[in-house]
Give the backbone structure.
Amino acid sequence: ALQLLEYLYTGQVDCIYIDPPYNTGARDWKYNNDYVDSNDSWWHSKWLAMMNRRLKIARRLLNPETGVLIVTIDEHEVHHLRVLLQELFPGFYIQMVTTVTNPKGVTQGRFSRVEEYIIYCFGPNEFVADSDDNLLNPPNPARKPRWKGLLRSGTDAKRNDRESMFYPILIDSERTCVVEAGDYLPLPQDPVIGEKVGNYEVAWPIRKDGSFGRWSVGSETLNDLISKGYVACGRYDGARRTWGISYISRPNQLKIEHGDIKIVDRDPTTNVVNIEYASDDTRVIKTVWHRSYHDAGAYGSDLVSGILGQPRAFSFPKSLYSTKDAIMAVVRNKKDALILDFFAGSGTTLNAVNLLNAEDGGRRRCIMVTNNEVSEDEAKGLRAKGFLPGDAEWEKHGICQSITWPRSKYTILGHRDDGTEIDGEYFTGKFAEKEKSRNFYHIGFTSSADFTTAARKKQLVRIIDGIPQSLVKRDSAFILSDSEKHFASVLFDDTQVDSWLEALADHEHVTDFYIVTEKPATFNSVKNRINELLGPMIVSEEEKYPIKDGFAANLEYFRLEFLDKDRVALGRQFREILPLLWLRSGAIGPRPELSDKEPIPPMVVPDKNPFAVLVDETHFTDFLMALEAKNKLTHVYLVTDSEEAYQEMATQINAPQVIQLYREYTENFAINKGGR
């Protein structure tokens, strides 16, 4: 199979991911049809010989500059494998990752092993892409810095409170962006709501109740912020007849200046910046991975069983997410990558590639190779019943027919052959910002008069999570921390509500509010004012992808068998060769087929494929005419035994690749030729 792939994709594969037999000493893999166990004095050598032949071809398949080989392994062969890879991949940068795949651990009287290893061989010009998750430290899907509403809320929020902050803001409705802030409109003049200025709409500070409010900053300051890209235009509010406008608050502006918040990019249409918290720690993937969803039990064995609808369907599959993360580290920015797995097992790699494509809109292709062997125990049971390899009853128990193919098919369709939908959801690793209500707690069993001492206040704070007792002072009417680590605030004196609200104005990080008052009406009033002042919380929640939705992907299944060299050379097995020509030409468009009943035509020029085949060279003139009418031609195959005829025809064809059949094909498959 690898030799066939070498014919099709030499130097074209971006990433090879393999999970080979681990050679643990158990009778779980074969060498020359014999099971190998720890009693075999050559068990390490046999395993290395098996890997050596495959890795030599794998090296030729990889893009020599940017290709990456990824091999998962455990402690039994990790050191032998590392030495072998250094020998076979000179010029490649080799690095190893330790990943926790079994948090419960495996104990055999000594240390409890929880980890496996992933060895990366990077082409000379390939590097790891930045990531939102370094895969080691606790995931911190911190919300992006919140943009503050420009309309003043809470205290001091009416027009007559700050007359100079009542001014028009020009809006380009086609680009949905803020253009400019005008001069303030003095009292007692009132604006004409809905009137344009030139070609621009106009936004005025209008409160929810329809009364005139004020903006949070002056017009000169706002124009400066507009020029920096710190002001964003939201949607038109039909109820208030104005536009929603937000800006980067002063505390966050300072964080940008100090480097705590960074500008990622700018919208090319509106010039508005995209900002996020700066944290180099989360951008670079570490060499130790610890994620709960890398658990091979819950997200490997259990997931496969759920997809196939049968318990214990497959032993020791990889976690879907550990496979996806391993591959994504090197193909994140290659949305058209070609990925190969020649130890396909249960088909986790294709499942992972499809999920990655669904998440980022990629068109990555995946090739999987597997045999159809049955386990040693199953083989004994089948032989006892009189079945042999090749029998239908035997073959249906093979790994390909019973696991790899059904899983691949079901996950793409989202349902099984019997029509039942597959339950569950995929984790995507992507987080979306959502609005969530803040939390309010009414401390109504007591009154403000009971909190006149620091000791009494500490008694309450002691049972509140999110704020330290060290902030408590005897004369504190409320507790509020500037640190974003402290997410709670307490009001002890309900006569100091206005002062508390004024202090809260730039503290969007506060999520929990404890209000001491005997009056329910006071509690509700304060709650409403805080919601108006700060608005809802913006939190990050991981997006899920229902398994039943399937994937927008195509899947082709090939059974690889041997062809007679002489029959191929005589052109008598063109039907069998045609799918390979489709693959070599990029697998674009529907796979063309020729039935056994129809004769082989003198030429094949498919309408929906970017290739053409001249089967009978006596029809070359007609073939050239057919090519002239064909768009996006990438591959032309010429069947001829004559090198001279091939060269003469090739000079008249305008295509990126012109290939001679069948000489090139048959020469490629000379077994063990040239040290292969």
